[in-house]
Amino acid sequence: EQVIADMDRGGIDRALLVQAQNAYRNDNRYVVDMARAYPDRFKAVVVVDAREDDAADQLERWVSEHGAVGGRMMFQTPDFHADDPKVVPVLERARRLGIPMCIYVWWRDLSRFATLLERTPDQIIALDHMGHPPLEGGKPYEPLAPLMALARHTNLILKDRKSTRLNSSHT
Which band of pLDDT confidence, cut at 50, 70 and 90, is reported for residue 169? Predict the structure, then answer.
């Protein structure tokens, strides 16, 4: 209820609830329960782990049985990356379900993310936190060249958050 009150104060009608994998892994019950309890205010984006053999089936269950409107995959461990072959079947299922996927990668793995965009050109993919780009140094932001190179991919959406953005002293 506090989030709804904050949304009302800010003039926000609806919001996506994005599952935080670090807290609950791929247990998406809380976000789908909140979306179900407040369907006019919230929609759920669920996490799946492509390392699990049934990840695509899990995604489909969250969408078809619980109303999720998007998926998310996290690549935070050094042994699993966005260009792993296990990722493509999950993205293909998301495409068939008609939902976008949010992909969390570290900046150092941006080239692997680019490979994923190329392998799945018909799937809408959001780059979570814009890959945590290096923003220090200010204009002209030359270190952002790898991110700018992704602009040619028509299936790419950039997802930002407050901590990703520059503070006012760098604009």
Answer: very low
Strand 70-74 to strand 156-158: parallel, antiparallel, or no bridges (unpaired)?
Answer: unpaired
Q: Report DSSP letters for the chain, one per residue.
A: -HHHHHHHHHT---EEEE--HHHHTT--HHHHHHHHHSTTTEEEEEE--TTSTTHHHHHHHHHHHH---EEEEE--STT--TT-TTHHHHHHHHHHHT--EEEE--GGGHHHHHHHHHH-TTS-EEEGGGG----TT-TT-GGGHHHHHGGG-TTEEE---GGGSPPGGG-
Mean pLDDT of the chain: 89
Contact 17, 43 (CB under 8 A): yes
- What does pTM read for this prediction? 0.86
